Amino acid sequence: MNNEVLSKYEELYHSKPTYYAYSPGRVDLMGSHTDYNHGYVVTMPVNLVIDCAFSANDTDIIEIYSCNLKNKTKINTKTGDIIEGGNWAKYMSAVVKVLLDEDYELKAFSASFCSTIPIGSGLSSSAALEAIAMAMLAQTSGFKIDKKNMALLSQRAENVYVGVNCGILDQYSVIFGERHKVIKLDCRELTHKQVSWPEEIMVAICNTNKPRELHGSEYDDRRAQCEEAVTEFAKIDSNIKALRDVSIDFFHQHKNKLTTGAAKRAEFIIEENNRTHELEEALTKGEVEKLKDIFKRSFNGAKDLFEISNDAMENMYKAMSSATGVVASRQAGAGFGGCMVSLVYKDKLEEFKKDVFDTYKKLTGIECDIYGVKTALGTHVETIKSTNSKQVIKHTESE
């Protein structure tokens, strides 16, 4: 439990919290933009997290204090309206509204939270916030919701009330995490496999410190081009419902039916989807030597075909790929800045971090942030037990 969260709760509300909630960030290891194409993604919930202390209150108003931003938001549980709050309040409000749409009776809570997930970096801080809000409301309101429905409703909240046309990946990932595993998610069937992670390798998340923004046209344009490709291919084969259904041979045979932009986007998605299967097989068989090539092809495709790279990402890729201890490197999240990801031998992590920091600063003049992360449990709530005035909760981060 984050001590700042606990002390701030007691300072603000003059009592001890009843519950502790936790929600991780996540990074995709393979499968950029495959989620809304009904494909596969290999994703890793990570121990950069939102920690929250909270208790039910006797009003209709949710009160939440952010230790990071030093401000409070208030949301009406009868309407979902934001009474006061910063930009992050819209995610909490969206969750309230989508639960009201489903006729849940909601009971408010008072809370403090602290996040170690970098905002705007592609590590799903918004999904973590949506998931934790839903889990907290379920706890205080006394209803049960299974993990899959939690993910679907969190996604709907972001689609309908935040206005981001995201797929299911982020929400599913932060909810279904397990220790020492990564998730291979089937985005059509909403099923997944837990794939064992090699003990000798850590994930290094390298933040370019160039924030990304999904409200611009770039994300929506690429999604529309993928849908354009599906529409054209479905005229040839009615069984094609998404790019997941298109083989690379079929693509090359019929790509002349597509605009240049749609053809490039489709080629990347089809190949990227295949790479998720390659990565699962390599991890399952312990074939670490194959990871570099799989990751390299993903980054090159993201840069040349899906065109979601920028100068900061390309300079970070150069820095990561040449650093001590690196196994493989690629983009993370939706691209357009934010974070990159490397697989690194555990015993070389500090050398890797120094090399990347120095090289990236030399190339860009920007000081990057680098996080060595582990696998993490998914979103959950626990009751805080008091023993002789001391509060005790079960350890929840990845070991």
Automatic annotation (TrEMBL):
Keywords: ATP-binding, Carbohydrate metabolism, Galactose metabolism, Kinase, Magnesium, Metal-binding, Nucleotide-binding, Transferase. Residues 8-55 form the Galactokinase N-terminal domain. GO terms for molecular function: ATP binding; galactokinase activity; metal ion binding. GO terms for cellular component: cytosol. InterPro entries: Galactokinase, GalKase_N, GHMP_kinase_C_dom, GHMP_kinase_C_sf, GHMP_kinase_N_dom, GHMP_knse_ATP-bd_CS, Mevalonate/galactokinase, Ribosomal_Su5_D2-typ_SF. It is an enzyme of class 2 (transferase). Residues 92-177 form the GHMP kinase N-terminal domain. The keyword Kinase applies. It holds the Pfam family GalKase_gal_bdg. GO terms for biological process: galactose metabolic process. PROSITE patterns: GHMP_KINASES_ATP. Residues 281-361 form the GHMP kinase C-terminal domain. SUPFAM superfamilies: GHMP Kinase, C-terminal domain (SSF55060), Ribosomal protein S5 domain 2-like (SSF54211). Its EC number is 2.7.1.6. Belongs to the GHMP kinase family. GalK subfamily. This is Galactokinase. It comes from Saccharicrinis fermentans DSM 9555 = JCM 21142.
